[in-house]
């Protein structure tokens, strides 16, 4: 069922039945679904659901930077590296489909680093993976 928050955004949920095989299967499910749309999208925004510091300003900055710089990807920059959320141009869709297991999209960003624009996301290195992380989030916000 589509969340109330997404109903006006034209989103279509994609269920990844193969999720136990790793994050790459989720990326591939999303890319494959995008490839089946018409017209074919110029780019894909990949993000994760466990970065509590992520907000609309970062997403808008990623999309506008990608639009203006026209590199093969525009990634978030945090903790001296690049990662998601990131926008990937159509040129690298095939590489996203080649990921496997627990390989995330960072591998592709690092492979093409000279062709990747970056947007600062200082809180991007903090994600919620454990109950301890959730407790840490409460401390960060107090």
Automatic annotation (TrEMBL):
Name used for this protein in its record: CTP:molybdopterin cytidylyltransferase
Originating organism: Acidisarcina polymorpha
Keyword Transferase: yes
Pfam families according to UniProt: NTP_transf_3
Keywords from the UniProt entry: Nucleotidyltransferase, Transferase
Record InterPro entries: MobA-like_NTP_Trfase, Nucleotide-diphossugar_trans
SUPFAM superfamilies given in the database record: Nucleotide-diphospho-sugar transferases
Keyword Transferase appears in the UniProt entry: yes
Domain MobA-like NTP transferase: 6-114
GO MF annotation terms: nucleotidyltransferase activity
